[in-house]
Amino acid sequence: MQREFPKTHTPWREVPHATLRWVLAVLLAAVFLVLAICQETELPQQIDDQVRLWAYSIRTPATNRLFLLLTHLAGTTFIVGVIAVLLIIPATRKRVGIPQACYQAVFFLVYRGLKSAFARPRPDSAMWLVQEHGWSFPSGHSMNGMVFYGLLAFLAVRNMKDVGGRRWLAAGLLCLPFLIAFIRVYLGVHYLTDVLGGLAAGGCEVLIAGLFMDYFHSEMARS
Questions:
Q1: 130-164: b (≥16 Cβ within 10 Å) or e
Q2: Which of 10, 83, 181, 219 is the one with CA 20 to 30 A from 197?
């Protein structure tokens, strides 16, 4: 008679598309590393200069005013304010506010560390439309915006019952980091490689955060 051994519990198998999400996270991390390594070489610098000069050439008074407002959508004050509201409202506190606040705080520290580690100067301040301080790579607005809106999109898909509504909401939220990334180049405070690095790092962080949230959710469901 063949002896049967108990099945080993493998909780990662219960996480939806875990392998694909880990692969995407690694790829985005690799993109970030390539951008970080190549930022001081000649070819990326040429592309950076061409893109920012093109962005300056399409400026108009109307778009200047609009983008000066929209850039705050990924600013620290706005993000902290929205998270505070999510924590105050009982209906969103546990499922959205707390995980959003925890992961956003952790990844903000990661962003500050990366800024200091690479210490890339910003573009010529003569072309800035907004005053900024600190280093250029990676773009904080792009990285924090991707984390903020990416996590909101993930939590919306996870918690909303209206399938059509959550898809539209998630799609809209995920468009915002890319718009903000373009705006940062348009305003003159970042290079193209800065915002691409921010988006890649932020996207990697969102994927990892989503994986661990699904993992712990699976573990809690079993207990």
A1: eebeebbbbbbbbbbbbbbbbbbbbbbebeeeeee
A2: 83
Q: Is residue 58 part of a domain?
A: yes
Does residue 36 contact residue 197 with C-beta atoms inside 8 Å?
A: yes
Inside any domain, residue 217: yes
Contact call for residues 115 and 133 (beta carbons, < 8 A): no
The label of the residue with tokens 């290079």 reads 191
For residue 26, tell me if it sits in a domain.
no
Ranges under pLDDT 70 in the chain: 1-16, 40, 217-223
Q: φ, ψ for residue 137 (rounded to 5)? A: -110, 130
Q: How many separate domains does the chain show?
A: 1
What element of type H or E holds 120? none
pLDDT digits over 48-77, tens only? 999 999 999 999 999 999 999 999 999 999
| CA dihedral sign, ordered 86, 96, 109, 48 | negative
Tell me whether residue 25 is in a domain.
no
- Contact yes or no for 143/198 (Cβ under 8 A): yes
pTM value surpassing 0.85? yes
- pLDDT tens digits for range 205-214: 999 998 888 8
Structure tokens at 114: 């990366």
Token pair of 134, please? 């600190």
Mean pLDDT across the chain = 87
- DSSP secondary structure, 41-93, as one string: SHHHHHHHHHHHHHHHHT--HHHHHHHHHHGGGGSHHHHHHHHHHHHHSHHHI
| Lookup: tokens for 111 | 């962003």
